[in-house]
Amino acid sequence: MKFRGTLAGRITLVCLAVAGIAVIVAGLVASRLIRTTADNVLQSTLAAQADVVASQLDETGIGNRLGVGKVADVVRGQGISVVVRRAGGQALGDGVAVQAAGKLGLDRNHSGRVTVAGSQYLVETRVVGARGAAFALVLPARNAQATQRALVRNILLALGIGLLVAALAGFVSGRLLGRPLRRAALAAGSLRAGRRDVRVPVQGPREVAEVAGSLNSLADALAVSEARQREFLLSVSHELRTPLTAVTGFAEAIADGVATGPDAVRAGQTIQREAVRLERLVTDLLELARLGADEFRLDIAVLDLAALVRDCAEVWQLRCGREDVRLSVSAPAGPVPVLADARRLHQVVDGLAENALRVTPAGAPMVFSLSVSDSAASLAVRDGGPGLAPEDYPVAFERGVLNARYRDRRPVGSGIGLALVHALVTRMGGTLTAGPAPEGGAAFTITFPLAASTATVPPPAADLG
């Protein structure tokens, strides 16, 4: 049972099945051909012998008992009976042979097969001379059947050898084809055990080589993914440790009575602020985890993107004013209907704005810019901060990448905010891209198709800044 379940076993069985079908078909065709060919060969041989005998006898020989006896002795050793009819006389010979010759007829030259008493006979008749003398050579058909059986035995032997060769060829082919697959299976087991340095030689048939190449690519992808996960966990740990340290320190100060009066108030405010920061971080982590689940719900409906931008701008005008950052808003005066989840899209804009304000220095601008084309609406959140290196824009939405690269040089977030907003936009059917901004910093652009109810493009944008 184990052998049948292996690739070598299955290839061997397939080869045997194909060879067996070929044997059956070849046997059926060959048996018919053998039967026909054997009959034709024996009939031709008998006809040739009859012609030779006819050339040696004439009416004198037919009438001469000695001449006929010599002929009978020659052919009788081959299992052939001789029937003779002298001119004007009756046919003489073995009873069954006379009946067979009589059925075919001794009046002219004949070749044929006749049945007497349930047995078949090959008969050749020849007329000798002009006065009607004739003879016949009669051969039982069982002689032909014996020849057929001998030929069939030889063919069956050859076909049996062919089956054996097919089985050996299938087994060897299966082993050769299964060897690279077995190596791939061992490599997969090593990957499952945690090794990421295993590689499979890319060789063998194209399909097997593709399996090996895919397994090697999987090993590389796993190594990169795990490295990024480690970096992400390190960044998240760093982000968690900072507020936890503050909360723990100020809580101990209050508990020990070190912070009293106004100091206790300030300690309580710090604890509250850091607790809110922790809550936001944990919420983002949970949201990002839930995005990958099927039960994550979105309330998709038609909403006015221009109105949503103006609502967000009212909140961020105050926050930007406290940081001495000028917020400029550009949006069409009319409605811009798109299909999205209003609450989640508001969360996305807030996340991008918070990210932009964090890196924008005092006196520099921050921009909300909504533009509309024939089929889509695009909202860009731009900042006048330091921006990103060109190679960092393609990886800006990968968890923890920007945090790991910039946390020692500028204020950074938890490393999951951009990943979260990108996942939210994608789940809502939009796109989110990153690139340099005209203000000198970075621009993050959200694009949604216009809702089907939109018939015209809204009027040109109005500067609300």
| CATH A-level architecture of the largest domain | 2-Layer Sandwich
Strand content: 15-25%
Give the terminus-to-terminus CA distance: 79 Å
CATH class of the largest domain: Alpha Beta
User: What is the global morphology?
Assistant: rod-shaped
At the fold tier of CATH, the topology name of the largest domain is: Heat Shock Protein 90
How much helicity do the residues have?
A: 55-70%
CATH superfamily of the largest domain: Histidine kinase-like ATPase, C-terminal domain
* Structural domains: how many: 3
Provide an overview of this structure.
It contains 12 helices and 13 strands. It has 465 residues and is of the alpha+beta class. The chain has 3 domains: 2-149, 2-Layer Sandwich (Beta-Lactamase); 206-291, Helix Hairpins; 301-463, 2-Layer Sandwich (Heat Shock Protein 90), CATH 3.30.565.10. The strands form 3 sheets. A 6-stranded mixed sheet has the order 11-12-10-9-7-13. Strand 11 and strand 12 form a beta hairpin. Helix 7 runs antiparallel to helix 8 (262-291). The longest helix is centred in the middle third of the chain and has 51 residues, at 142-192. The chain is rod-shaped and about 155 Å long. The chain crosses the membrane at residues 12-34, 155-177.
Task: Spell out the blueprint of helices and strands.
Blueprint: H1 2-5, H2 7-56, H3 59-63, H4 65-76, E1 81-85, E2 91-92, H5 95-104, E3 110-116, E4 119-128, E5 133-140, H6 142-192, H7 206-255, H8 262-291, E6 301-304, H9 305-322, E7 326-332, E8 337-340, H10 342-359, E9 365-372, E10 376-383, H11 401-406, H12 417-427, E11 431-436, E12 442-449, E13 461-463
Parallel strand pairs: 7-9
Antiparallel strand pairs: 1-2, 1-5, 3-4, 4-5, 6-8, 7-13, 9-10, 10-12, 11-12
